[in-house]
Amino acid sequence: QVQLVESGGGLVQAGASLRLSCTVSQSTFSGFAMGWFRQSSGKEREFVAAIRWNEGTTYYANPVKGRFTISRDSADNTVYLQMNNLKSEDAAVYYCAAKMGPGDPYEYWGQGTPVTVSS
What we know:
11 strands, mainly beta, four-stranded antiparallel β-sheet
């Protein structure tokens, strides 16, 4: 069983930065990829960014390209989401998730961490 714990959410002003963290409970993460998703009130959960754990290849949703950066620290089993130049539309609950194989869905999810952006 893989457990994910997010942290780092909070209230920031538009234009500010925030870094989210997600720590995996495994001593050595054996999965294929980690992703960040977000869900704002009244909307469906949407993909934000992902990283292949071994290769470090990254993927981004168009609305966050150039502003958000996903990275991982293999030694700490932690994935990060650096969010710069935050906009009001970035406000949401952010979730990290783990995909254990290339053909698998994101099977494991964290509890979510809220991000609020004031204008």
